[in-house]
Design a protein that fits this description.
Blueprint: H1 2-19, H2 25-57, H3 68-97, H4 106-128, H5 133-142, H6 144-161, H7 165-171, H8 173-179, H9 181-196, H10 202-243
């Protein structure tokens, strides 16, 4: 009768060892490194805002130029577009380099894109138009590039609100479908920039080229995935036919 008791005590001891096993030091080090990198990336994302603040205050001879409000609106919008394209570049870079850790920064970059785009609009609405709703609505209706810009901001809002892990679980597959709007938003953002520039279209053309490469890569990988699935299905179908 002593054996069952001994067996039970050994089983309990084994369970306890597994339950209270210390985390792998390499895993803890990796998590700590990623945490530090996230802090670094966060601070880097704030640098454009810090520079704009210094220029507004005129620190060290920095200035926004003769038309500070227009320059502030332009710079905030451009940084919003920069972060939007950087966010879109994360997945291709991850696939090309094999560095899955890059995905850990995608949500942060996307939220900074929303932050700068929203700031771009608020400076326009507040400092440029003094929050005069009638004038803002008239601008949206009469100026196509503003119509496109507002459309991009409106579409970007639900993406920012559903960026949490909780919303990802709640929406399930619908979350991924919703966040595919980022490609349309990026197109609207680049279009807004292109139409807003009156003479020198060199810079908007560079943004168009970068976006074209990112969208082209996305379409290529989607086509390759569908082709791979088709080849596998054809192989299964051939094997099934051979058996008969």
């Amino acid at each position: 009768m002593a054996m069952p008791m001994k067996w039970r005590s050994c089983t309990q001891a084994w369970i306890c060892v597994k339950t209270f096993e210390q985390p792998d030091p390499d895993t803890r080090m990796k998590a700590k490194t990623i945490g530090l990198l996230k802090v670094l990336v966060f601070l880097l994302c704030l640098l454009p805002l810090v520079k704009l603040g210094l220029e507004i205050l005129g620190v060290a001879g920095l200035s926004l130029g003769a038309n500070p409000i227009e320059e502030l609106i332009h710079r905030l919008g451009k940084w919003g577009l920069n972060f939007l394209l950087i966010t879109l570049a994360v997945t291709p870079l991850r696939k090309l380099t094999g560095q899955n850790v890059l995905l850990r920064f995608r949500r942060m970059l996307g939220l900074f894109a929303f932050f700068y785009v929203l700031s771009h609009f608020l400076v326009y609405a507040g400092l440029d138009q003094s929050f005069d709703l009638a004038v803002i609505v008239e601008d949206i209706i009469e100026r196509p590039y503003i119509t496109i810009g507002i459309s991009a901001l409106v579409l970007l809002l639900p993406l920012a609100l559903t960026s949490t892990k909780g919303m990802m679980r709640r929406l399930g597959r619908r979350w991924q479908k919703l966040h595919r709007l980022v490609y349309l938003i990026a197109c609207l953002g680049v279009w807004h920039f292109y139409w807003q520039v009156k003479k020198d279209i060199l810079e908007p053309s560079i943004y168009i080229s970068i976006l074209a490469v990112l969208l082209g890569y996305r379409l290529l990988t989607h086509w390759q995935k569908k082709r791979s699935i088709h080849i596998k299905l054809q192989g299964i179908k051939s094997e099934h036919t051979a058996h008969f």
